[in-house]
Design brief:
alpha/beta; globular
Length: 166
């Protein structure tokens, strides 16, 4: 899929390109492009110090996501990292979360919360899997769809931590 996308895009403009070479260059640039939210390290350390088990659950390509987490210095905070490419299914599909819970039997719908910034992938994914969710949306964004009591809105990571440690 990813190997063909640049060929398909440029074909729309009657241009031929080396789609594989463009994809490789793009993936390299994208993997090196990571940004951490303010106080991310301190917040992850606070959660760790409070005995919270932290798992990364991300859509994307394994190499890219691993490089981003490592480059941002975040990898060591996570008990495990789950990436859609490895799982063979992406959020919001409930099978994404089912595989994580099968791998980590101590995780249950009662003791697990998804923290994410994507309404479609993270919030919908959590809802589809029967998990509580904290939607981190820094711009006072309003949900595009109705949500139930399982969804909490945080405007920054500090607010998300307060909700987790309640």
């Amino acid at each position: 899929m990813f190997d063909q996308r640049f060929n398909d895009l440029f074909a729309q403009f009657d241009k031929q390109v080396d789609g594989l070479a463009l994809q490789q260059w793009y993936a390299k640039m994208e993997a090196a492009n990571y940004h951490t939210m303010p106080d991310a390290h301190a917040i992850l350390q606070q959660l760790y110090n409070n005995g919270v088990h932290i798992y990364a659950a991300s859509n994307g390509e394994t190499g890219m996501q691993q490089q981003r987490l490592s480059g941002a210095g975040l990898l060591n905070y996570f008990d495990a990292v789950f990436i859609s490419e490895e799982l063979g299914v992406a959020k919001p599909d409930p099978r994404f979360f089912e595989q994580i819970m099968a791998t980590c039997p101590a995780l249950t719908c009662k003791n697990t919360v998804m923290v994410g910034d994507s309404w479609q992938s993270d919030v919908r994914g959590a809802q589809n899997a029967g998990l509580d969710c904290i939607w981190v949306t820094p711009n006072d964004q309003v949900p595009s769809a109705k949500f139930d009591h399982q969804i909490k809105i945080a405007h920054d990571l500090k607010q998300a931590v307060q909700l987790i440690l309640k």
